[in-house]
Design a protein that fits this description.
This protein is an alpha+beta fold and 72 residues long. 25% of the residues lie in helices and 39% in strands. The protein contains one helix and five strands, in the order E-E-E-E-E-H. Strands 1-2-3 form a three-stranded antiparallel β-sheet, covered by helices on one side. Strands 4-5 form a two-stranded antiparallel sheet. A hairpin with a 5-residue loop joins strand 2 and strand 3.
Length: 72
């Protein structure tokens, strides 16, 4: 089954959010989502923005919708 993870590769205030799609053990793709976030507002444990303000909650919702769209 395919899995989707979100990650940051930068420690800047305007870090792009990357999507990693793993289809199998050997087939993975990584692309920018077009969305940006301050790296201090990113949770490495959950792989989503911290839920500390309304903007981050909306960003989390957008990322979940993107995951659903890709998996469908």
């Amino acid at each position: 089954m395919a899995t989707i993870k979100y990650l940051l590769q930068s420690n800047s205030e305007n870090a792009p959010i990357y999507l990693r799609l793993s289809i199998s053990k050997f087939i993975t793709y990584k692309r920018k989502t077009g969305l940006n976030i301050n790296f201090k507002d990113w949770s490495k444990a959950t792989g989503f923005p911290k839920q500390n303000d309304a903007e981050n909650k909306n960003l989390t919702s957008d990322l979940r919708e993107l995951s659903k769209y890709i998996l469908d």
